[in-house]
Amino acid sequence: MRLSGFVATAVVLLLLLTWLLLRGMNTGTSSLDDGLRALDDFAIAESALHRDVLSARVGMLRNYDPLVHEVETLHISIERLRLSAPEDRELAASIETLSRLVESQERSTEQFKTNNALLQNSLAYFELFSARLAAQQPGSVLVRQVSDLSTALLHLTLDTSPTAAADVDDRLAKFPPVSGLSEIQATVVDSMLAHARLLRALLPETDQTVRVLFALPTDREQGVVRELLKAQKNTAKSRAELYRFTLYGVSLLLVGLLIRLGMRLQSRALILSRRAGIEHIIAGISTRFINSRPHETAGYVEQALADLAQWNCADRAYFVIAGTPVKVYEWSREGVQFEPGWPESALTVAAQLDPAEDGAIQVYDVRKTAPTPAADLLRKADIHSWLCIPATNEQRIRAVLGFDTVRRAPADRWCEFGMLRMAFDAISNALDREALERDRERLQENLQHARRMETIGAFASGIAHNFNNIIGAILGYAETAQTYVRPGSRPVESLVEIRRAAERARDLVHQILTFGRRSDARRSRVCINSLIKEAKSLLDVSLSPYVNVVVRTTTENTTVLGEPALLQQVILNVCNNAAQAIDAPGPIEIDVDVQNVPAAQQLEHGELAPGRHVVICVIDLGRGMDEMTRERMFEPFFSTRVGGNGLGLATVREIVLQHGGALQVRSAPGAGTQFDIWLPCASAIELVPAEEPHDSSGRGTGETVLVLENDRARLLRHEEILAALGYEPVGFTNLMDAINACRTTPTRFDAAVLCCHLHGGAALIKDASEIRAAAPTLPLILATISAREIAAPALAGAGISGIIRHPLTSAELAGALSTCLLPK
């Protein structure tokens, strides 16, 4: 109450001093001084107006703008006089009288301007006509009469008395008639006389207007206004002196009050000093963090904790960030240690205690607090007083800045929690920036790796296309040579091995092209359970006899959106890799499950979106992998096997990521390997059963087959394969030749084989459509490395009856031709 009364007294005295100061300074003399200056301006403007009127009267002033400006100045001066003392009625009445005189002056001035303008104009014309007559009739009686009239008018301009005016009238009356003059001269004389009569009327009137203007009694009214202004100014000065004396007395009273206030302020100086200290510390912390590098952040955080703890008289300081695991930055005085489990438990304690309005949690004496789980944790941490600055994220404590005093109370009570919040933000922002810098470095590394992989993929695709041509030649010539060799002989076995090696090379080229492809594949709905059952049948006949494939599926919906061939290739590649890692007889387990991912989740390779996912686990009990192998196993062309190409797992990773999935690999030397393949689920639909493969062992019976291939050497190999299969090949290297042959004899050919080396994509479909238009009933077979770039509707629209892989093999080509030539 005493402090509030003191503050109220101080406020009242300050308001009183302010009022006295303003009254002592604002005496009102400034407006009165402005009124006196306005009165002076009025007198100057009036004198200037009289001067300029006289100048205009004698013809020395041709421009009337000064007269307008001076009248405006008179009006402005009147307005300033009205503002100088608006509350004085006597002064206001005198000013209004002066204002009416100004209005009279304005009217006289306007009348003078009009008359004087006409006067000057008539004088000019009179002189002009006089000079013209003098030039036409020098020495004539008319010229002498004009000269006499001019003299009379000149005398009238100097003396507008009735005598001078009568003289002009007499001259005008005695002016001779113009009957003896020419028409032009008569006109000139008439005009001159008209101007003479106008001058006779205007000269007396103008002089009278000037006399009225000069006779207006403004000097007396100006003197009255001036005296009234001076009287009010003297009164205002006397009143201001009284206010100043009163101000002096109140100031003496205030001095005593200020002395008492100074004694109180002294007690608060320490608080300001502490605040300045914490501000200096926070500025230093922020500066260090701004200039730090990512690897220096941890050290600077510990230094910041030390500075804050020393300022806050704390024994221990720490910054704890929630997570898995919990991240802790700590500092303690020499000889003071942290108890086990502390400060990690500070997050739990902060979550159980309610913060104050300033957001801080303060426990001044832990021993005096009620027994609660939070208090027990504080006692177990050997804390006497505790201060915590928490930060929440979605109603959870995400980080705390804590200070402990051990077995003693702090020297000063903690304060300035707002400044500690700034320190918390500085440390938090520095750690966030460190994390962002590390993420940026990781993303840059990933970007460089992706660019290298893109280059490798493009390079591999280019090489694979060239190798595909070579493999086609090997397969074609091997099959052709096999038809000329006796069955069961040694050369047949060699040719079979050559074909087998070429087919393996063709599969390797297909893997390289799949890995190097960057376009999105055409997607359909695929049941993973059905796909794995098909893959198991292939694995049972292709893997070693001592490897047993065990499949465990689920009854839940396992439908995903993808390309069946690519997804089956993922399963086959992973299982083949697992089989190669098994040195002793044992199983390869394939488990299929469906799991729900509630939120986005980052796996080792790829990120999962929220939703249901099919999980394919491929488990083997083989040799396992060390850390270095696990880091590089998805790199293209990296392999731990002699003769391995290193594209199997790289292709797996590429296909899974393209399908929006992710990979998780668990492995250790001697403990086997587990591949977890996550694929996003699609809505369940009924899958279309796969068509049964046709028998490819059938031979032709002389049917004519059109072959379109732009390379002559490859065309000859294709013709030899068809001839060996019992067909009559007719080859073309030019599209138009093939189209013309079909148009000439539409029924000549029984089937056509189009090779993808001619064109790619849409151009090949266009060529097939043109052949189809020339021979509508002709079955078309497309030989291509991959038809993934061509949509099924486009193939159907072009009339494609079958697709086989390039380079051609006898078995695939025979099967496709048998299917196309089956009776309808």
Keywords:
single chain, 5-stranded mixed β-sheet, 5-stranded antiparallel β-sheet, alpha/beta
Which whole number gives the mean pLDDT?
78
Total number of strands: 19
Helix content: 55-70%
Radius of gyration: 57 Å
- Tell me the major beta sheet: 5 strands, antiparallel
Structure characterization notes:
The protein is an alpha/beta fold. Helix 8 crosses helix 9. It is flat, with a radius of gyration of 57 Å.
Concise summary:
With 824 residues, this protein is α/β, with parallel strands linked by helices.
Topology (SSEs and partners):
Blueprint: H1 2-25, H2 29-57, H3 65-84, H4 89-136, H5 141-158, H6 162-173, H7 183-215, H8 218-291, H9 297-311, E1 316-321, E2 327-332, H10 346-352, E3 361-363, H11 373-380, E4 385-393, E5 396-405, H12 417-483, H13 490-516, E6 524-527, H14 528-542, E7 547-552, E8 559-562, H15 564-580, E9 586-597, E10 601-602, E11 607-608, E12 611-620, H16 627-632, H17 648-658, E13 662-667, E14 673-680, E15 704-708, H18 712-724, E16 728-732, H19 735-744, E17 751-755, H20 762-774, E18 780-784, H21 792-797, E19 800-805, H22 810-820
Parallel strand pairs: 7-9, 15-16, 15-17, 17-18, 18-19
Antiparallel strand pairs: 1-2, 1-5, 3-4, 4-5, 6-8, 9-12, 10-11, 12-14, 13-14
